[in-house]
Amino acid sequence: MKIDSWVESLFDNLYDGILIIDTDEIVRYINPAYTRITKVSYDEIVGKKLRELRPGARLPNVLTSKKAIAGAIREEFGIEYSVNMSPIFENSELVGAISVVSNIDDIYKLYQDIDKYKSRLKSLESRISAIQRAKYTLDDIISVDISSLEVKNTIKKISQRDTTILIFGESGTGKELYANAIHNESNRANGQFIAVNCASFKGTLLDSELFGYEEGSFTGAKREGKMGLFEAANKGTIFLDEISEMDLEVQAKLLRTLQEGTIRRVGSVKETEIDVRVIAATNRNLEDMISEGSFREDLFYRISVFPLTIPSLRQRREDILPLAYNYIESYKNSLKGDIFLSKEAESMLYNYSWPGNVRELRNSIEFAINMMESNQIKCNHLPVRIQNSLKTESTIEKLSDRIKEFEKQEIIKALEIFGKDMEGKKRSAEALGISLASLYNKLK
User: Where is average pLDDT lowest: 147-161, 212-226, 379-393?
Assistant: First the structure.
């Protein structure tokens, strides 16, 4: 058998050892690496029968069986090495056999390197997992007001059902806090929780962020491609905040993902199965957006399987002071002392309308703490907008109070005219256009 010069040149430069025999079991070639690994010189072995030099050699068996042998462990002169053997055919005719020899120490070192990289990868995955864990639970949602207690009870019911949820709420109501709590109450609590603010990505940039992309998909794409956030959240939860800001093209891909349970990376034709719970949130009226043509109606019905409305802070007034004291508590350690709200400041916080909701309350407390001289927050320490707002509101009488006062005066007038006995009350009720029972209720 003849070995071409370019093949020989190739073998000469390989790191692994090469030994080739012909059909007569005569060694026709070894490369320098074979000499390095086995400590056998060229002159000692080339041109001689392999079995005569090494009675236990298995390469001649390959000539007989015409089948490869992988991962055979050999030891010669106290040296261990791994051998892969294969027959050589030329025009379907057996012409010899080849051994590819690797030093066991090199293999062990490779395994050690692989184990080291696996360990690093596991550590990295653990760190990523810790970063992507949902931070908040139901216990972190302060609820005293009946409206917020109802929301917490609803979360307890729906969290385990693995359905898609759409959270409605004004800006600053803490929609991500509630999404965290839903995840931690669910059977996915040990999985990833990945929050995405859709408004942070312009146009179709959100497409590659959510679904990933293949190598060379577009200018600026990473050479090795990129995993999308849906794949990263597999077996966990993805929270799509401000979903109203999602581009229509991305909406179409999201709808397909929700319907099929698969994602397709940008630039790929392959569908990848995923198991992700979707929680979306918005502070806008999506039905109005559907009418305007800026939000898909089919996606709206798919994500709002279970709608959950978070009440604004002015709708849960009994939570205002407990929330305020909760934020104050977080500053106690840094200020090394207790902090109190004056009664007037409590009243001012309670009666303010809080257009910025919980976020505005937290910022207002921080502002007041920086403004106070002692350990007590007074009215003049609160933001000016809160002080001025309540001064303006105090000059306006509530319509309901005016109506009650008007009713009171008209009832008194009727009773004075018709009398306060049973007959007078009947005639008064008739004149006022109300039932006798209603008159008695109002008198109470």
Answer: 212-226
